[in-house]
């Protein structure tokens, strides 16, 4: 049977369909509440996937991803508070539109752009992913080791803060990944003669702790009056969607361009949805033919561009995760975790041996977009109420879920302590501007990196030039060195510029 | 200023200890067969150097911006007492909950955690927080234990 059709059948199974719908609603609701993010939503649902088969588990997570990317716009437009980092730029034009009494149109454009952006990236994913997967078949140990090194450096470089802090974070992740049995000789490392540490530190409790606990800790720190500004009422959501559909002719080019930007940015590990949204907004501002309204004062393209781009990121981010095992952003990092827990390894073999799961995921992605259309149309009045819920009301439950989620993986109390330590570490790392994504990625990929690196050296009888002798590996090394040099140069120039401006102002 | 120097300094110290422990693993060098000590030694060296570089950068930045305690990319680096208290409270509550589950059972311990956190986050009235805590603990127990069969006896 055609794998795409097989995948569609998997995605349309009643249980998978139900969980995908649950995912979309939860994603929309959680991302709409200011202070809660899509990463938090997927990480809280991750423990549930331990008990599910791959298709429903991935269907639920992709539903959260799709719903979450669209949900951030609700509070951005109605409260002027972005629901997620990608929607920061949506506030610039979304909120002025709402203040002018066009909240329904702004929401309609945001949802429509999200749906079209997601559909574009799904199309690219379906067309490109199987072809790149065939190319990945050419990768041996040296290529895989250099690819992981490149992926880690990209994530460290594109993350917030300086490249040095990003690399320190990645180094910490690699250091934690070394704990336990050595993957080649099975000797003990950093176990301190304890049985519990022999299996190493699982990345699941670290992930749960790092994404969820800092949010709770933040709420604990900021007690007191956290009341939100009043939400702007939505007059007629259905009319808004109809008006948005009518304005599609003017927005078509902007949505298409932003979707292409979002998909491309999503495929580059570590870049993130905020970059995609900002870049697409800048292009929209530069290339827009509609000059009746200024950008920043309620221009419809100012809402369409970032929303299409951040939704299009979804499909783009799945490309490196599914094919190379390198997640592009926190959400795909969690999805990679879900895949690995199910005993599935990303790469060509996943496409060849478990095509029904891969195409089932693609089908669930498409179904999520369809559900988003229906839910966004019917649910706007509900979401208007939901965004008024203070995030801290949910925090005690989130902490409880963190404890159970980390314990549920292997019924181990050690995992709870790991989750707790990771959460506290993540909170202070973020406070001091150290990114946490490189640490997580390095922890997930650390063992693979080490195994492939050492295997390459063993095969080459100790010749480190093996990494330069193979063309694909050499290409990765060249990209790695060029990216590192470019990032260091950019940071140096930026620091010189800020010093010069500081001197000129004094 | 201290926090942004102390953190990388601690990392550098940890990297040194990490590398020192790696010396005890067999086969450190390439000639000896790329053993289990090779990678940890690499990581320790790289992280150590980067952390020291960060200490130097931050010290230099601190001395050049003596009158400005916060450089542009670090909006607020010093830890407030409130943050320390919140961290200690959260850690204590999680630890207490895990130990309490063994003695009083999941529902009672989880209700206690949720109730204590609700109060700490300023949610009122108290009776509503207490009722919500019990309801949350019961429903969580039902989902994980009843539906998924997880044994919630830590």
Strand order of the largest sheet of chain A: 1-2
Average pLDDT taken over every residue of chain A: 87
Strand content of chain B: under 5%
Q: Please estimate the helix content of chain B.
A: over 70%
Shape of chain A: globular
**Mean of residue pLDDT values of chain B:** 83
N-to-C SSE string of chain A, H for helix and E for strand:
HHHHHHHEEHHHHHHHHHHHHH
Gist?
With 506 residues, chain A is mostly helical.
Describe the structure.
- The complex is a heterodimer of chains A (506) and B (154).
- Chain A has 506 residues and is an all-alpha fold.
- Chain A has one domain (3-223, 235-495).
- Chain A is 75% helix and 1% strand.
- Chain A has 20 helices and two strands.
- A two-stranded antiparallel ribbon of chain A has the order 1-2.
- In chain A, α2 (14-32) packs across α15 (355-386) and α3 (38-49) packs parallel to α16.
- With 154 residues, chain B is mostly helical.
- Chain B is built from five helices and no strands.
- In chain B, α4 (106-120) runs antiparallel to α5 (126-147).
- The longest helix of chain B is centred in the N-terminal third of the chain and has 27 residues, at 38-64.
- At the A-B interface, α7, α8, α16, α17 and α18 of A face α1, α2, α3, α4 and α5 of B.
